[in-house]
Design a protein that fits this description.
About 30% of the residues lie in helices and about 25% in strands. By secondary structure, the protein is of the alpha/beta class.
């Protein structure tokens, strides 16, 4: 008997409240596999239903692992269905690791750390590249009376399974995510070897259309034992200003260039700013313009001047404040009670000791970080040879006097200037992006 002809057994029906609203939820057992069907709106005639078939992934969905794109896709699908007001999210609980189970998936991760890609790791453990079947999920959809769907997926196997079960796939809508340095090989493998639709989505800037191409901006990520791989990113006018004489900087660059900035944030473990930027601009430092995970927000604040209402202290992403023993212990404890990590390092000539701060961040597992300002912080990283990569967005604007992107570096003759090597140039809307490695002085 084929799996599509087996009648699934309904286990429970309930209302599940979530941050995306209430979902009418039904659980089905199909030959030992449990599938949750989260429904918004009325199924009605079962035609033209927005559907996501989601393979359960404990590490990505619940723990926020950056090794895959599962958690980001899950939340994208929930948001899309909630916005439409009618649709079904199918959550298949036994699809962990493309069907090999949690324990074997973790063993596969170990093999990937040793150099294998995700397919090679599964096969090394004696499993096929993909052990899942989507016929059982399709059978349960039929039991709900669903006849035609718009399928949110990058995986062509899911569309084929629905069609084989007699469910008409009106169209497939991709769920691309922004690549992270931790999952870039995984996404590339899914596209190149499994035939998935471009899992990283449309280009961010001219030909930056693949995870490997966002690497054209990031360069080769090579953290050391002493510090993360540090990328300095800022946007400036043609005359080298990052703000006007009054401090206004919104928006020097266009929307396309800002999307690239969010893509770079999504690709790194952390984003770093000085407290001056927080006091002046009150940035969120989250990923909002591309579908990706927000990095850890790191604020350099030697005396803990950061206001309580700062957006970077909100719980929409993790935050670490690097301070010194010149800050108040009571203030440190108060921030920690709010769920903010506070790290105390020695004082440096201009605030925190950057060398020690980066060593601590590296020991805490941060491998890559994006430095977004302000000018004092950018200058400190460049003058102390702590920057590995520079990415500059140049907007076609002139504002005259204002805040320089980089302050005095102590360069007295051109031959001793900092050189940018292995350069890449891209267009992002009306702005020009120039990226390159910072040559060691």
């Amino acid at each position: 008997m084929s799996s599509t002809s087996v009648v699934p057994t309904e286990l429970a029906e309930l209302t599940l409240p979530t941050p995306f609203g209430e979902w009418q939820t039904r659980a089905f057992d199909h030959e030992g596999s449990v599938h949750l069907y989260l429904c918004r709106g009325a199924i009605g005639d079962g035609e033209d239903i927005l559907v996501r078939l989601h393979s359960g992934c404990l590490t990505g969905d619940a723990l926020g692992s950056l090794r895959c794109d599962c958690g980001v896709q899950l939340r994208q699908a929930q948001r899309a269905i909630a916005a439409e007001g009618r649709g079904v999210l199918v959550y298949s609980t036994d699809h962990e690791g493309r069907g090999i189970g949690l324990a074997n998936k973790l063993r596969a991760y170990v093999l990937q750390d040793g150099g294998l890609d995700t397919l090679q790791a599964n096969q090394h453990l004696g499993f096929p590249a993909d052990q899942r079947t989507f016929a059982d999920a399709a059978a349960c959809l039929r039991a709900l009376g669903i006849r035609s769907v718009r399928l949110m997926s990058n995986n062509p196997d899911k569309a084929r399974a629905l069609a084989d079960a007699g469910i008409h796939v009106l169209r497939v809508e991709g769920l691309p995510t922004a690549a992270h340095t931790r999952n870039v090989r995984y996404l590339t493998t899914k596209q190149d070897l499994l035939g998935h639709r471009v899992p990283m989505g449309p280009p961010l800037a001219d030909d930056v259309s693949r995870p490997a191409d966002i690497g054209a901006l990031l360069g080769t990520v090579r953290p050391t034992e002493k510090k993360p791989y540090m990328v300095i990113k800022y946007a400036q006018t043609l005359d080298g200003r990052i703000a006007t004489s009054t401090g206004d900087s919104r928006w020097i660059s266009g929307e396309e260039e800002r999307r690239v900035s969010h893509g770079l944030r999504a690709s790194c473990d952390a984003v770093v700013v000085g407290v001056g930027t927080v006091l002046r601009d009150d940035p969120q430092l989250t990923v909002r313009m591309v579908p990706g995970a927000s990095p850890i927000r790191v604020v350099l604040d030697s005396t803990l001047r950061i206001p309580d209402g700062s957006l970077v202290l909100a719980d929409d992403a993790a935050t670490t404040i690097v301070t010194t023993d010149r800050s108040s212990p009571d203030r440190r404890d108060d921030l920690r009670r709010r769920g903010v990590s506070v790290v105390v390092v020695p004082s440096g000539p201009r605030g925190v000791d950057l060398d020690v701060a980066l060593q601590v961040l590296r020991e805490d597992g941060i491998r890559s970080a994006l430095v977004e300002g302000g000018a004092r912080v950018i200058t400190s990283f460049l003058s102390r040879n702590l920057a590995d990569r520079l990415v500059v967005g140049i907007a076609p604007r002139l504002i005259g006097s204002g805040t320089d992107a980089v302050h005095d570096l102590g360069v007295t003759d051109v031959s001793r200037s900092i050189r940018i090597e292995r350069r890449a140039v891209h267009l992002a809307g009306e702005d020009v992006l120039i990226a390159g490695d910072v040559a060691r002085q």
